[in-house]
Structures are given as C-alpha cells and as structure tokens.
Amino acid sequence: MRSIYQPSVRHRTQSGFTLIELMITVAIIGILAALAYPAYTDSVRKGKRAEARAALMNLLQQQERYLTQMNTYVVFAAGAADTAFKTYSSSDGTSAQSSHLLGARKCQKIGSDTPSEKDCIEVFAVPQAGVFSDPQVTSMAIDTQGRRTCTGTQIDRCWK
Q: Cys-Cys with 95: which of 74, 86, 88, 117 at CB 3.0–4.6 Å?
C-alpha cells in the first residue's frame, strides 16, 4: 500500500544542454566567424600596407640624405642585405617576419629622357613571399619627384 504523501512519479530537474541547443550554438558561432574573418584579414592587409608606406617614406628620406652627402642615389634590389639602408618594412629590427621588402631603382623613362641615379630614384615595396600575400596590391612605389605607382587588382587601396 502506498502512502498518500509519497508521489508515484518522481520529478527530476533537468541539468545541462541538449544536443540541439549545442548544435544551434555552434552554427551561430560558425556564421559569425564566417562574417568576421574576411573583415579581419582585410584589416590586417590595410595595416601591412600602411607599414609599407611608412617604410617607403623613411627609405626615400634616407635616399635624399645620401644624395646630399654623396651627390647620387643608391640602387638596390628588394631585400638586398649589402646596403646601408633598411630594406624591409617591419619595426622589430629583422627582415624575417617583415611583410614587405624594399628596394630602389632608377626612375622610369620620362618622355624621351632616361634619368640616371643622380637625377631620380624610385623606391618600391613588394610583399615578402611566404610571409605576406596581398592580391589586391602587389607592389607600390614612389619616386623622388613625388610620383606614386601601384600594381594589383585594387590599386585605389594602395596609397589610402
């Protein structure tokens, strides 16, 4: 015989999450990540381009200073190690993790004149292979005459 005071069915309180609740949470996190990741990578690229622009302006100033002392500019390949100039864009003091390598070359032909290293120099930055990839801006350059050039699929983003 059962007592009047004892319930026939015991009620247990539910604790934890159901599988469907966990799946919905994972789906929401996945959607948010899919929306946020492209914006994050674009922001990183913008930051690396800004770092390269600052390094180009610094290199151009170094070239101008060298011109006043030696009466000529210095031409060197991107990332060359045997130059007195900083040839990378990172601020940590090494080129190993630098996003861009810097170089200097004679200016492009202007009309029918081909300038020499004493007349005009163009400093340029290219992304360092294996460290940084930027399909939108593949190179940027500025010369001592103030002309800016850029290559890539979205060159309007180069100097902004």
A: 88
C-alpha dist (Å) from residue 127 to 32, 35, 71, 147:
30, 26, 30, 20
For 110, the 3-state DSSP assignment is strand
For residue 41, give every residue at least 6 positions away whose Cβ sits within 8 Å of its Cβ, in sequence order, or none: none
Q: Please, which pLDDT band fits residue 4 given cuts at 50, 70 and 90?
A: low
Tell me the C-alpha to C-alpha distance, in Å, between residue 141 and each of 11, 35, 156: 75, 33, 14
Tell me the pLDDT tens digit for each residue of 78-108: 878 777 787 777 766 666 778 888 999 988 7
Residue 2 confidence (pLDDT): 58
Domain ranges of the chain: 19-157
CATH class of segment(s) 19-157: alpha beta
Backbone angles phi, psi at 72, to 5 degrees: -160, 160
pLDDT tier, 111 (very low <50, low <70, confident <90, very high otherwise): confident
